[in-house]
């Protein structure tokens, strides 16, 4: 699970500068969700192998009285969701009463907090930081967000526990991998060098791989499907969850949790087990004003990470928004299978429906492999059919495909449409085999495959998708030099 770093501080201390520096290489994820108290920004960042989420909480203007109130209103939720808080102050402006107010609050929060003195470029860092020790938050970390100075080591310290955990995990994994490698070092070497082998030897090796793949695929067969219902506030997630579970179960699962936790609800439908990951928090009947408070971007992102299949709900009456596309991007990035539900389809005039369908075509054309359902969570129409697509998406994501099938499909694609020449030689695809599931990975071996243009890679992915009838899941194709 990705850790969450929250940037907290009064306006103008450099939060968005640091946010941009941390997330620059990746797209900022979910900006400015409407309905939240103030514009908050969420982004993905990475240090080493560790991905994390950064939240810019927006400014806290603590100069007026009632700092508590304002903290509560806009940043409390973000602090609550965070694993670590970076409390930023301005090394040039010096300590202010607003800083003291925020510090007092943070001391009471019992969250892991690092005090960061920004803008220490071109000034004497030692004297700039010294006065901030009196905030009583322990060590003080000087940085210059605009230049990036001190930022890397700050994050290393901030996420030290998570980095350690990851390193330990990787150590264990590589120890296991090493042991395996030793056992069949010779075979492993041969396995990826097809050039000296004849047809029969290659077939033998590939069938060994197929057996291993089969074992891996088998493990998915009997597991419940983890299904996350996600979407912007007010699109109808709670209504849909209630509809799926049946009214009588609502109260049972209406348990308070922290804002970042989804509720996991086991259920069964048509002999298939599911675990519903409820990000909305099923609402107790009669309570209507909970929408803003119960919605949490972090919770949504974590639910997506943890799911097998994501049911993304959009609102027919609102159209496709940037936030919908951000969420979609995150789902695909995470390699999760997806089913789209266009909710509130009831009571719309025919021409309105046509307009909406045209818009969906235009904006969601890039994800034409996802099944699209028009539903009314309120009246229940179309809801039952969702599960067929969910099952189909999961089956696609975990579908067993063997080497000869993949190689044959690849050859057909190549025959229909030759790869281009690279410095006078034609790129040649030779073999393809499965590299993993959920999402499906296909490894293609060949000559000069690293030079394949993006357009040809897309063509191949689509060819695999059509031939294998994989709906609802992203497919990853990797290319290995065969010689
Ligand atoms: P926010 O309101 O906390 O998000 O602050 P911003 O990131 O918008 O920064 C406020 C101002 O401080 C901008 O003019 C930045 O260019 C400037 N600033 C941010 N970081 C630094 C820094 O490390 N050094 C200097 N000299 N200026 C900085
Ligand atoms: P959530 O924030 O995504 O959980 O959204 P809710 O389930 O709380 O729904 C937000 C509002 O949309 C509520 O007033 C619902 O009654 C309404 N709503 C939900 N689904 C439908 C639907 O299918 N049709 C119509 N007309 N309204 C709906």
UniProtKB/TrEMBL annotation:
Keywords: GTP-binding, Nucleotide-binding, Repeat, Ribosome biogenesis. Pfam families: KH_dom-like, MMR_HSR1. GTP 2 binds at residues 231-238, 278-282, 343-346. The keyword Iron does not apply. Gene3D superfamilies: 3.30.300.20, P-loop containing nucleotide triphosphate hydrolases (3.40.50.300). GO terms for biological process: ribosome biogenesis. The keyword Transcription does not apply. One of its GO terms (molecular function) is ribosome binding. Residues 3-166, 225-398 form the EngA-type G domain. GTP 1 binds at residues 9-16, 56-60, 118-121. InterPro entries: G_ENGA (IPR031166), GTP-bd (IPR006073), GTPase_Der (IPR016484), KH_dom-like (IPR032859), KH_dom-like_a/b (IPR015946), P-loop_NTPase (IPR027417), Small_GTP-bd (IPR005225). Associates with the 50S ribosomal subunit. Belongs to the TRAFAC class TrmE-Era-EngA-EngB-Septin-like GTPase superfamily. EngA (Der) GTPase family. GTPase that plays an essential role in the late steps of ribosome biogenesis. This is GTPase Der. It comes from Oceanisphaera avium. The gene is der.
């Amino acid at each position: 699970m990705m850790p969450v770093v929250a940037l907290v501080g009064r306006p103008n201390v450099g939060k968005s500068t640091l946010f941009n520096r941390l997330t620059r290489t990746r797209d900022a994820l979910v900006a400015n969700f409407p309905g939240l108290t103030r514009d908050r920004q969420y982004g993905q960042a990475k240090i080493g192998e560790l991905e994390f989420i950064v939240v810019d909480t927006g400014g806290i203007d603590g100069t007026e009285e009632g700092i508590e109130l304002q903290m509560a209103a806009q940043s409390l939720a973000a602090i609550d969701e965070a694993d670590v808080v970076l409390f930023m102050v301005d090394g040039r402006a010096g300590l202010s009463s607003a800083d003291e107010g925020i510090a007092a609050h943070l001391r009471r929060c019992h969250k892991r907090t690092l005090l960061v003195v920004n803008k220490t470029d071109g000034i004497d860092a030692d004297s700039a930081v010294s006065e901030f020790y009196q905030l009583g938050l322990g060590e003080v970390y000087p940085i210059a967000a605009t230049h990036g100075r001190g930022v890397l080591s700050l994050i290393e310290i901030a996420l030290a526990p998570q980095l350690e955990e990851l390193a330990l995990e990787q150590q264990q994994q590589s120890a296991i991998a090493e042991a395996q490698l030793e056992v069949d070092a010779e075979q492993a070497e041969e396995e990826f060098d097809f050039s000296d082998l004849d047809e029969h030897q290659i077939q033998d090796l590939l069938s060994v791989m197929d057996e291993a793949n089969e074992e891996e695929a088998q493990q998915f067969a009997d597991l419940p499907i983890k299904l996350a219902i996600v979407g912007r506030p007010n699109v109808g997630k709670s209504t849909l969850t209630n509809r799926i579970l049946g009214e009588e179960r609502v109260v049972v699962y209406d348990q308070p949790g922290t804002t970042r936790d989804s509720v996991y609800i086991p259920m069964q439908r048509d002999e298939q087990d599911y675990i519903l990951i409820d990000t909305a928090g099923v609402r107790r009947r009669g309570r209507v004003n909970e929408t803003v408070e119960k919605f949490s971007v972090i919770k949504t992102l974590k639910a997506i990470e943890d799911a097998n299949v994501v049911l993304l709900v959009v609102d027919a009456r609102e159209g496709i928004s940037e936030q919908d596309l951000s969420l979609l991007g995150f789902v695909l990035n995470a390699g999760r299978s997806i089913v789209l539900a266009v909710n509130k389809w009831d009571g719309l005039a025919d021409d309105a429906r046509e307009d909406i369908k045209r818009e969906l075509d235009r904006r969601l054309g890039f994800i034409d492999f996802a099944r699209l359902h028009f539903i009314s969570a309120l009246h229940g129409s179309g809801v039952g059919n969702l599960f067929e697509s969910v099952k189909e998406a999961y089956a696609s994501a975990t579908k067993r495909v063997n080497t000869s099938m993949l190689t044959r499909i690849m050859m057909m694609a190549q025959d229909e449409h030759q790869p281009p020449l690279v410095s006078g030689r034609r790129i040649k695809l030779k073999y393809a085999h499965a590299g993993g599931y959920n999402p499906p990975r296909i490894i293609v071996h060949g000559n000069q495959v690293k030079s394949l243009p993006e357009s040809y890679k897309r063509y191949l992915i689509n060819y695999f998708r059509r031939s294998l009838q994989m709906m609802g899941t992203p497919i990853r194709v990797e290319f290995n030099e065969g010689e």
